[in-house]
Design a protein that fits this description.
about 270 residues, seven-stranded parallel β-sheet, alpha/beta
Length: about 270
């Protein structure tokens, strides 16, 4: 399970999300941290002290872009315009930038983490969008994993697992009404799968109905699955031989293991949520 968009601007909402989860179960989470959220660099000593404490408790911090803003020139294609302007509202930082700029943004983010003594094992692009240049740049770093909207990717082993993220669309009323039943349906469809992902965003904290649904969903998942951070799942899955999986094609066009690959250490109902 992950909390997205962690930054000084969003910290109070992130804490509310964490409190809602802890009311159900005190489980390790992956906190997706944005060093300069929307281009701002604000004093964040209380947040950083809290994140230090969470790390000591077994949580994980992952790099979630650098600014969380899409600064690339517009594209003519309708799909690109929809994803970048409507679906993400201009926050897909790595959706359309080139390889060199993507590498620079990741380097800046990693340097920010290093200044605080925080280990980084994973990178999750804002809005889960990675263009071709960003994919190439990401491969040059010693990171264990990344995730897109539909897949969990092992970067070094070049393997991917179908694992759609359960997420709420809190930006508008239609999304707030439709996304909970969609999350339920996706969770039911993924019941045999080795991994189910749940992501919460700061905006979700403003809607009690969404928080209550998330709590019920967490309860149901924990009845059958073991909670893990993304980094822990990546390490365990990397230990599974690639020869045990059926290959499929990921967004870069490379051949990778599909969702038919067995989860690390999965026995019966001992599946994972993360």
């Amino acid at each position: 399970m992950a909390i997205h968009d962690v930054a000084p601007d969003t910290w109070e909402d992130c804490l509310r999300l964490h409190q809602a989860v802890r009311a159900v179960a005190d489980i390790p989470l992956t906190w997706l941290v944005v060093p300069r959220y929307h281009g701002r660099s604000l004093p964040s000593a209380p947040m950083e002290r809290a994140l230090d404490a969470l790390l000591a408790q077994g949580h994980e911090l992952a790099l979630h872009g650098y600014t969380h803003l899409d600064s690339a020139p517009p594209h003519a294609g309708w799909r690109s315009r929809f994803l970048r302007n409507v679906f993400t509202q201009g926050e897909g930082e790595f959706a359309a930038i080139g390889e060199q700029e993507a590498r620079q943004q990741i380097e800046l983010g990693l340097a920010w983490f290093a200044e605080r003594g925080w280990e980084v094992r994973g990178f999750v692009p804002p809005a889960w969008l990675l263009g071709e240049g960003a994919w190439r740049a990401l491969r040059t770093f010693s990171l264990d994993y990344t995730t897109t909207m539909t897949h969990f990717h092992l970067l070094r082993a070049r393997r991917s697992l179908l694992a759609p993220s359960l997420v709420y669309a809190a930006r508008n009323q239609a999304g707030r009404l439709l996304s909970p039943p969609l999350a339920d349906a996706t969770a039911a469809a993924m019941k045999p799968a080795p991994l189910v992902r749940l992501g919460l965003h700061p905006r979700d904290a403003h809607y009690p109905a969404l928080l209550r649904h998330a709590q019920r969903l967490v309860e149901r998942l924990l009845a059958e699955r073991r909670p893990r951070t993304k980094a822990d799942f990546a390490a365990a899955w990397a230990a599974v031989p690639a020869s045990a999986a059926i290959t499929s094609t990921d967004p870069t066009g490379r051949r990778r293991p599909s969702a038919n690959a067995r989860s690390p250490h999965t026995r019966g109902s001992d599946n994972h949520s993360g």
